[in-house]
Amino acid sequence: MIVLQAAVALMMAQAAPPALMAGINDTQQRDAAYEELSQGETDAAIARLEANLAENPEDPALLINLGSAWAARGDKEKAADYYRAAAGSDVRYRLELADGEWVDSRAAARLALRALEQTAVAMN
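The chain above was modelled as a monomer; its predicted structure follows.
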């Protein structure tokens, strides 16, 4: 299965750490605003991710990270929309999560959406 270099920030809560990067090889990378997300720079992450998404509109890592950035800003509805878009994307590949587990990008998106929903339920 093809594995692209990507970062996936699965923020179980706003303070949760972003996931690690996965790779095909040392030369191919996806700019998924990993540094911005890991440093809590959500506005910069959103700007970078939206620019990259214009070139790769179905890239699941970009969609998931946009969801995570919007979740960190408190817009759970927009976050959920991005997670759903990633889960339904025709583009898919394996990603390495923060715990070292490798999962299909659709599964990572569903995991992020479930975490977002659980956070919303816990806050009510």
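Residues 1-28 have pLDDT under 50 and may be disordered.
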